[in-house]
């Protein structure tokens, strides 16, 4: 079916034709008519199938009629990351070139004043991340009562990033009569509950089973040792030996690993850039543009680049770390094989990643092949380097179970008999024996403290004058233990009573008649 039969306006069709697209994707073909009919839509499709255009094109057709007012946007699009928000803005600029629509972007890392100036002029399309949107709203710079259409893109990513409370609040701020569109590649139960709350009789558009991967992506597992230097060596070997290699996005689970891998590849002469959440917005966009423009061949990034980023021609995806959440695997490898092209997804796997790989295979309902028939190394080979490193240090590694060093018992029969006898003794008898042992231990300690000589101290010049009487007896020195008789009473604070405790406590007088009564009693 061509775009001309979907009900889009002439201006939008001209922009689509100028962009070089002739036929819609399945998600676009099924979702666009329902959006134009002003129905709520729940769209589920594989990543890279054109979900952004599925709501961008009908929105441009709807917005041709009407005009925005100051600080009251007509439509609102929520994105989980700044990069996705900027990418959606580029889509509106590309498809809406022939229309005079005001598009504003509210994301972090940009001046509030510049964003506020755009809101004052009136905004037809407001693209925002939830945090910055609520910041403007709480400052009184934004009104959401004029929103006619609400789009929540990558809703499952909103769940992972903790934006669901913000989404619920925003949905309550916009009018009840608005049109709502949900688009995502995965649909966990929490998002399903959210859609049931804020969508009214939605049309479910599901062109493929949730959390499936495209058939044009070749997925491969690559075994590696668990040591960081071994994984980095495996990564370099994959890059150098990959077939039809043009460029690659390398995903790490942690931001600090992004920097480590980036520096390692740069040191070995690779053309590489880095992208993670701790970078400021200008540096993040610069790294992304460098990769898009083929200025760098490799991009090491965290999951901030795993969702929705449209980089047209990525030949390889390399998972340096197997993702902790199996849904992230679907989004990561979706950065390649876009628009019908072929792609390759390689995942470096250590022994610690076996459970994560099993969860991924369960989610995508298929087995992932090992590279050239390779398998995970046996446990002995995988753990030998770690044991050698621990042996070189001459100590047990922190966190290593103590069972690796068996405890030698000189008399196992005697020890077992003693434990069995201790367990069979009555409780009262055990308590009395314990008290007796404690008393004997204290008595022996006191006797040793008196009998043993004081440790030799370095010679000092004698102090002028006779020593104080209280230091004449070594047993009376500070810190020296003194044996105590069993019949000697224990005095907690000594026999001296401070003088302030012997003073009489005066009665507190509040009224004059109380004073008279006290004087009469005295």
Structural commentary:
By secondary structure, the protein is α/β, with parallel strands linked by helices. The chain has two domains: 3-206, P-loop containing nucleotide triphosphate hydrolases (Rossmann fold), CATH 3.40.50; 217-386, P-loop containing nucleotide triphosphate hydrolases (Rossmann fold). It has helices spanning 10-19, 26-36, 51-62, 82-95, 112-121, 130-138, 155-160, 164-173, 189-198, 228-241, 255-267, 281-292, 326-333, 354-364, 379-393, 412-424, 427-451, 499-502, 512-521, and strands at 41-44, 75-78, 103-106, 125-128, 149-153, 179-184, 203-206, 217-223, 248-251, 272-275, 298-301, 316-319, 343-349, 369-370. The strands form two sheets. The chain has a seven-stranded parallel sheet with strand order 3-4-2-5-6-1-7, sandwiched between helices.
Question: What would you say about this model in short?
Answer:
The protein is an alpha/beta fold and 522 residues long. Helix content is 42%, strand content 12%. Strand 3 (103-106), helix 5 and strand 4 form a beta-alpha-beta unit.
